[in-house]
Each structure stands twice: as structure tokens, then as C-alpha cells.
Amino acid sequence: MQSLIFLILFLFPFFPSCAAVKKDKQTYPVAAQLTLPGPTIVIDVGHGGTDRGARAKNPFCEEKRVCLQTARLVKKYLDQLGYHVVMTRTTDVFVPLPRRVEIADQSRASLFVSIHYNSARNPTAQGIEVFYNESKDQKFKTSASKKLAESILTRVIRRTSAVSRGVKKGNYYVIREPTMPAVLVEGGFISNPSERGNLKDFEYIDKLARGIADGVDHYFKAKKNP
Ligand SMILES: [Zn+2]
Fold it and tell me: Between residues 4 and 128, which one has the greater pLDDT?
């Protein structure tokens, strides 16, 4: 009996530490340990720094700022959907076009989505359009980019109820040079007073950003279950 009491007294100090180790292990849910990072998406944030992009007064609106605001929200929604997002800029800095493509190549991105806003001499020009590049040497990239452009435009229009200007072919550097499927979203006209008003409204930009994230997500889901 005495030896049993001795044994209990001797072992007692070890129990709490054993329990603590066990508890520590249990703090990491199994699902989190097994979750693999989703595909990498590069969000190319148009303009920045000395390159201010399109501008207008009443209300004052600057393309580089709206691009960054939109891109941050797109990143938030893509993060929530499980994607890994890389932005070509996260602050108001100038990033040369070749550097933007280099960032996409280095991060081994699956998709490249460039965000811009439009401007025209005619102040009534309005609506959203999405560009992709057509290349005879890169048939997979061309068809995948077109599908991504259609997927994004459909969902952005559904969310914002803006006028659709359609999916268009374009020869812009940032959609021509990346090796992965690439699109350029022109999210509305800064030169149109009514659309400019929308672009100053956080809720409108939020809808637009959700539409872009939905479009990316739908593109991947359609690829898995054509
Ligand atoms: Zn632009």
C-alpha cells in the first residue's frame, strides 16, 4: 500500500504535462493540416505611382486608386475561396510592365487578371469589357483566356447590372506576354459622369470585385466539370 501511494505521488507531477502535450496536438484541426493551397492567381493592379492612369473631376477619380481598391477586394474574395493570390503592387508605386509579367512567371501563376478602368472622349461611353489576346502559337492560352474573360464578364455584369461591352481581342502587353491564360478587365468609364459616380461608391466596387472573383472560381469549376 505504501509503495502504491509512493508511486502515485511520484507519477502525479507528470500527468499535467502529458495532458498539455495531448491538448497541444489537438489544437490543430485535421482538415487544416490536409488543406492544400489552391491555384495561384496574379492580380495585376493597373498603373501606380507616377503613372496615374485615367482621371476626371467632379467627383475626382483616379484610375490607379480605383484599380488598387478593386484588386484588394478581389484578393479578399479569392482568399476566401481558397486561392493563393499574388498582386503586382499593393501600394501606390510604379511597376514597369515587364516586371508585372515577371512576377506572374516567378510565382508560377495559373491565371493572370489585370484590372483597369476606361476613358473616352465621348462622355456617354459606358460599360464593362474584358480583353484577351489571340495568339496562333499559343492555342491553349488563347482559348483558356477567352473562357476566363467570358466567365468574368458574365458574373461582373450580373453583380453590377452595368452595360456589357462584351469580350474583346486585345494586343496589350500584360495579356500578350504572360505564358498563362491572361485577361484585362476594363471595369467602367472614368470619363462618364454616371459611371464615375459608381466608381466612387464602395458597395459598387465591392460588387465588381466579387464578380471578378466569382468569374475566376467558375472558370476553375467549369474546367473540372465541363
Ligand atoms: Zn488603365
Answer: 128
Task: State the angle between helix axes of 139-160 and 202-224 in degrees (0 to 180), rounded to the nearest 10.
Answer: 140
**Ligand 1 (single-atom ion) residues, CB below 5 Å:** 46, 53, 116
Give the angle subtended at the CA of 176 by the CAs of 181 and 135, to the nearest 5°. 80
Alpha helices in 116-172 (DSSP H): 139-160
* 18-31 b/e (C-beta count within 10 Å ≥ 16 → b): eeeeeeeeeeeeee
Reported pTM: 0.84
* C-beta of residue 180 within 8 angstroms of C-beta of residue 109: yes
Q: For 1-17, how does the pLDDT look when each residue is reduced to its tens digit (9 = 90+)?
A: 555 444 444 444 444 44
Query: Is 186 an annotated catalytic residue?
Result: yes
Distance 22 CA to ligand 1 centre (A): 55
Measured in whole angstroms, the distance separating CA 127 from the mean position of its chain's CA atoms is 21
* Closest CA relative to residue 94, chosen from 55, 68, 132, 74: 68
Residue 223's pLDDT is what? 84
Domains and CATH numbers, the chain: 40-224 (3.40.630.40)
Q: 36 CA to middle of ligand 1, Å?
A: 34
> pLDDT tens, 35-45?
567 899 999 99
